[in-house]
Amino acid sequence: CVCPCWLLTRGVLHLIDGCVDIFIFNTMLSFQHLSVRARLSIAFGTLLFLLLAIATLAIVQLSLANQRFDGFVHGIQARTLLAATVRTEVLGRGVGVRNMALATAPETIAKAKALTEAAHARGTKALGELLQMVQAPEVDAATRQLAEHIGTVEKRYAPVALRIVALAEQGQRDEAIAQINEDCSPLLLELVAALQKRFGKKK
Question: If 103 and its partner were Cys, which of 45, 72, 108, 178 is the partner (CB 3.0–4.6 Å)?
Answer without folding.
Answer: 108
